[in-house]
Amino acid sequence: MEKIFEIKKFYITVFIISLLSLLIALYIEFFLGYKPCKLCIYQRIPYLITIFLTFLGISYSKNLIWLYALLLIFFSSFILSGYHVGIERGIFEEFSGCTGSSLNIIDKNELLKLLNSEVSSCKNVEFQILGLSLATINFLLSFVIFILIFKVIKYEKNKQI
Questions:
Q1: 104 lies in some domain
Q2: Is the dihedral of CA 7, 10, 11, 12 positive or negative?
Q3: In contact, 71 and 151? CB cutoff 8 Å
Q4: Chain centroid to CA 121: how far?
Q5: Residue 133 bridge partners (DSSP)
Q6: Which residues pair with 110 in a beta bridge?
Q7: Contacts of 85 (CB under 8 A, 6+ apart)
Q8: pLDDT digits (tens, 9 = 90+) for 26-36
Q9: Count of domains in the chain?
Q10: pTM of the model
Q11: pLDDT tens, 60-97?
């Protein structure tokens, strides 16, 4: 029974971190008025998926599949945020969705919507915490959580032997 309790605490911790990450991002966007770029929006998706996976992990904690799924989610979050940090630092070029320069639109209504919407560039760092961009913080957080999940999987597998 102790093993299940420990793993549930881990899932709850990951759930709280993911929920707080999303709430902070939404607070910065809607209450502080900073417009996120497309990659910033995409980086929220792994945290949203994590919230649902942690519920499954808590409910079915005997199955390691949820830990493997979280490992994959945070690896993808690490890669995505690393790409974003690379764009911010000039290592990678922005993709056309970041610049808003992809004007292959024929419909005039769609063109007007695009012109009226503010598309924030992925290379511009508009908000920082302790001198770090939100993409950099996400990069570090995703890496730490990925390593923790990896260690929990290793620990759980060793307990089964």
A1: no
A2: positive
A3: no
A4: 18
A5: 128
A6: none
A7: 133, 135, 136, 139
A8: 999 999 999 89
A9: 1
A10: 0.83
A11: 877 899 999 999 999 999 999 999 999 999 898 887 66
